[in-house]
From TrEMBL:
Species this chain originates from: Paeniglutamicibacter antarcticus
Protein name as catalogued: 30S ribosomal protein S15
InterPro entries: uS15_NS1_RNA-bd_sf (IPR009068)
Length: 55
């Protein structure tokens, strides 16, 4: 489950690298880490995680 808006805003506030930053690597990693850590079961969340495969 994706974090709600309030949680995501707090993550952005904590991990932003500069004013107006909303998509840096730090923020993306923090959001994904939050999604993984709050997932009820690993099996139900694996569909949310996609890993690109080289052809």
């Amino acid at each position: 489950m994706a974090p709600d808006a309030a949680v995501k805003q707090e993550i952005v506030k904590v991990y932003a690298t500069n004013k107006g930053d909303t998509g840096s690597q730090e923020i993306q990693i923090a959001v994904m880490s939050h999604r993984i850590s709050t997932c009820p079961t690993t099996r139900s969340c694996t569909s949310m995680i996609t890993i690109p495969v080289a052809a």
